[in-house]
Amino acid sequence: MNELRQEDIDHSIRTNQYELSTDEIGIGICTIVTHGRRRLHLEGAPLVEFVRRVIIGLVRGGATPEDDSFIGPDNRAGLAHFGADTPEEIADGVVAAWVAKGMPDPEWGDWRFNTAENRAWLDEYAADMRRIAEAKKT
């Protein structure tokens, strides 16, 4: 197991923020955990701290958390809120939920982070796909 280094955290934050700017799907906690485990060989407390600090960086960059388990009629994106929604509260809430599950390798649909701009694009794209599907029916 390796030690947690600030340069690794900074690199992961920059990489994930770039991904957010170029990929409308968002960044999943699965990407963050996998990077920490497989590339940096972190486990236990160092992995938890890595995930927490990367999430803080993403939230400071404008990302907000979503999880498929929160999707409902009044919350189509599955947005989650933690206290006053400070970066630290969000990171602590998401990490606590992940740790409570036993720190598994997350799957798609588990916690992910995205920007309002990306969500708007996805909503527009979904509306376009619904219109195309309706047009094919007629």
Describe the structure.
It is a single chain. The chain is mostly helical and 138 residues long. The chain contains five helices and three strands, in the order H-E-H-H-E-H-E-H. It has a three-stranded antiparallel beta sheet.
Note the main attributes of this structure.
138 residues; mainly alpha; three-stranded antiparallel beta sheet; 5 helices; 3 strands
What's the short story on this structure?
The protein is mainly alpha-helical and 138 residues long. It has helices spanning 6-22, 29-39, 44-60, 87-100, 116-137; strands at residues 27-28, 64-66, 112-114. Strands 1-3-2 form a three-stranded antiparallel sheet.
Percentage of residues assigned to helices: 55-70%
Largest sheet: 3 strands, antiparallel
**Residues in β-strands, percent:** 5-15%
Query: Radius of gyration, rounded?
Result: 16 Å
Number of strands: 3
SSE run:
HEHHEHEH
Cα distance, first to last residue? Answer: 60 Å
Inertia-based shape: elongated
| Spatial ordering of strands, largest sheet | 1-3-2
Which blocks of ≥5 consecutive residues have pLDDT under 50? Answer: none
